[in-house]
Design a protein that fits this description.
Layout (H helix, E strand, L loop, with lengths): L1 E5 L4 H12 L3 E6 L7 H7 L1 H4 L4 E5 L5 H8 L6 E4 L6 H6 L1 H21 L4 E7 L23 H20 L2 E7 L2 E2 L8 H10 L4 E4 L5 E2 L2 E2 H15 L5 E7 L5 E2 H12 L5 E4 L14 H7 L7 H9 L5
Parallel strand pairs: 1-2, 1-4, 2-3, 4-5, 5-6, 6-11, 7-10, 8-13
Antiparallel strand pairs: 9-12
The chain binds nicotinamide-adenine-dinucleotide.
Length: 317
C-alpha cells in the first residue's frame, strides 16, 4: 500500500514508518521538525527509513493548506496515519492557542487535503488524556462526556470531533486511536520513563509530582505500533465507519512503583525530588481494551517489567 504518515520523524511516527517499510509498503513521511525537542534527534529517528527507496520525506507544516494539497497531489494514498501534533500536557498550559492551531486547525487541514485527494482511510492519533479525571475506570470509548483538564487534551477531543464530522460528510473509514502513555526506544525526552532513566543514570534526583500515587497505563511502543498497523489494515477494508479505540496496556501502575522498578532495573539508588501535583496532570489513566480486542484483534504483548528491561538495555535515543 501507499501510506502517508504525518509526524513521521517523531517517537511514534518513526516506529510506524519503519514497520510499514519492513512489511513492504510505500511510505510518504511528513514532518516539520518542530523544535519542541531536538530536530537532529528526529532526523536520526528516520535514519533507516531515509536509506529505503520506498520512503519519501516531505518537510511540511500541517497547518499550511497549499503544502498539504501539494503533499496529497500525485498518486492517491491508500491511507493516512495522522500523528503530527504539538505534544505534551504541561507545555500546552503556556500555549493553548498554538496547540489549538496545530492540533485542531492542522488536523482540519490534513483532513481537507486528504478528502480532496480521494483518500478514504484515515487513522488519527488521539490520547488517553481526553478522559480527564473520569471517575469510572477503566476508561471506555463509549463513556459519556469526556472532560479534558488541559489544553492539549481539549485539542485532541476537538480533533476527534473534526474527524467525526469529516467522516460523516466525506465517508470512508475513520479510526481515532486513544494512545495511553507510549514508551520505548526514541521516546520523547519530556516523557516520564526516558526522563527518569536519564536522570538516574546521571546520579541525579528525579522530580516526582504529587505523593507518588498517580497511575499511568504505560504501553510498549511496539504494541502501540501493532495497533496502528491493525487500524490501517481495517481502515482500507472498505467499511463506512467512525470508530474511537483505546490502545493501552490495561494495567495502570503507580508512579512510586514505576520509579522503584526503574531504580531496581538500573541498579542505582532512588533519589526523589518531591514536587506538588502539576495543573493539567490527571490522577490516573487506565484503558479498557476490549474494543481494540474486538475490532482490531489487538492485545498488548509486553509487560512493563520486560519493556523497561529492553528500554534500559539500549542507548536512549
Ligand atoms: N507518546 C505518547 O505517549 C502519546 C500518547 C497519546 C497521544 N499521543 C499522540 O501521538 C502522536 C505522536 O506523538 P509522539 O509522542 O510521537 O510525539 P513527537 O513529538 O515525537 O512526534 C510528533 C511529530 O509531529 C511533528 N509536528 C509537530 N507539529 C507539526 C506541524 N505543524 N506540521 C508537521 N509536523 C509537525 C513533530 O516535529 C514531531 O516529529 C501525537 O499526535 C500525540 O499527541 C502520543
Amino acid at each position: 500500500m501507499r501510506i502517508l504518515v504525518t509526524g513521521a520523524a517523531g517517537f511514534i511516527g518513526s516506529h510506524v514508518v519503519d514497520r510499514l517499510l519492513a512489511r513492504g509498503d510505500l511510505v510518504i513521511g511528513m514532518d516539520n521538525f518542530d523544535p519542541f525537542y531536538s530536530p537532529a534527534e528526529k532526523r536520526s529517528n528516520l535514519a533507516g527509513a531515509l536509506a529505503n527507496p520506498r520512503f519519501t520525506l516531505l518537510e511540511a507544516d500541517i497547518t499550511d493548506l497549499a503544502a498539504m494539497d501539494r503533499a496529497f497531489a500525485g498518486p492517491r494514498s491508500d491511507a493516512v496515519v495522522h500523528l503530527a501534533a504539538k505534544v505534551g500536557v504541561r507545555p500546552s498550559l503556556a500555549d493553548p492557542v498554538g496547540y489549538e492551531r496545530v492540533n485542531v486547525g492542522g488536523t482540519r487541514t490534513v483532513l481537507d487535503a486528504a478528502g480532496r485527494s480521494g483518500v478514504r482511510a484515515f487513522v488519527f492519533a488521539s490520547s488517553s488524556s481526553v478522559y480527564g479525571n473520569a471517575a469510572r475506570v477503566p476508561f471506555r470509548e463509549g463513556d459519556a462526556d469526556p472532560s479534558p483538564i488541559s489544553p492539549y487534551a481539549a485539542t485532541k477531543l476537538a480533533a476527534e470531533a473534526a474527524c467525526r464530522d469529516h467522516q460523516a460528510r466525506v465517508g470512508g473509514a475513520m479510526i481515532c486511536l486513544r494512545f495511553f502513555t507510549a514508551y520505548g526506544p526514541h521516546q520523547r525526552p519530556d516523557l516520564a520513563i526516558r526522563k527518569f532513566v536519564t536522570l538516574m543514570r546521571a546520579g541525579l534526583p528525579i522530580p516526582v509530582f504529587g505523593d507518588g500515587g498517580t497511575e499511568r497505563d504505560y504501553t510498549w511502543i511496539e504494541d502501540i505500533v501493532d495497533g496502528v498497523l491493525k487500524a490501517v489494515d481495517r481502515s482500507v477494508e472498505g467499511r463506512e465507519e467512525f470508530e474511537i479505540i483505546n490502545l493501552g496496556s490495561g494495567r495502570p501502575v503507580r508512579l512510586d512503583e514505576l520509579v522503584a522498578l526503574l531504580s531496581r532495573t538500573l541498579g542505582v539508588p532512588l533519589l526523589v525530588d518531591r514536587q506538588p501535583m502539576q495543573p493539567g496532570d490527571v490522577a490516573r489513566t487506565w484503558a479498557d481494551i476490549s474494543k481494540a480486542q474486538d475490532l482490531l484483534r489487538w492485545a498488548p504483548q509486553t509487560k512493563l517489567e520486560s519493556g523497561i528491561r529492553q528500554f534500559t538495555a539500549k542507548p536512549l535515543t
